[in-house]
Amino acid sequence: MANHKGSEGTVKVGSNAIAEIRGWEFTETAELIEDTELGDAAKTFQPGNTGASGSVQCFWDETDSSGQGALTAGASVTLNLYPEGASTGDKYFTCTALVTSIQRSAAINGMVEAVFGWTANGAVSLATA
After folding, report:
1. What is the pLDDT of residue 2?
2. What is the pLDDT of residues 42-59, one digit of tens each?
3. How crowded is residue 119: how many other Cβ atoms within 10 Å of its Cβ?
4. Domain hosting residue 85, numbered range
5. pLDDT-based confidence at 10, cuts 50/70/90?
6. Is the residue at 39 inside a domain?
7. For residue 107, is it within any domain?
8. Residue 69 region by backbone torsions, left for phi larger than 0, else alpha for psi between -120 and 50, else beta
9. What's the rounded Cα separation, in Å, for the pair 76 and 27?
10. What is the count of structural domains for the chain?
C-alpha cells in the first residue's frame, strides 16, 4: 500500500511549477438525475454529468509570472496536481481549468497569502509523469 506526505506534492500550470504552494485540493462530483416514478416507495436516480473544482493555496509571490501570474481570473490553463511529486513514474491529476476566483489576504502576524479557485472545463484525468 502506498501513501504520501502532503509535502511531496506540487502544482504546475502546464510545465511551470507554481511558487510558494501551501496546499491544494479538489473535489470531483457527479450530478444526479431523478427518475423516480409514481408509485415508487423510494427515490431512484441515474448518473448525470461529472465535474471538478478546487483551489491552490500559496504564499503570494508577485515574481512568479509563469505560475501564480498565469492564474488570473477567467484564465483557462492546463492545471497539473501532483500528490506524490513530479518524478518519472509519479501519478498526477490533469485538466483544463478555468480560474474562477482569487482571494488574497494579509494579517499583522502572518504572511500575505493567495488562494486560486478553479473549475475543470472537461474531465480530470489521472496521468503518469
Report:
1. 76
2. 999 999 999 999 999 999
3. 15
4. 11-30+60-128
5. very high
6. no
7. yes
8. alpha
9. 18
10. 1
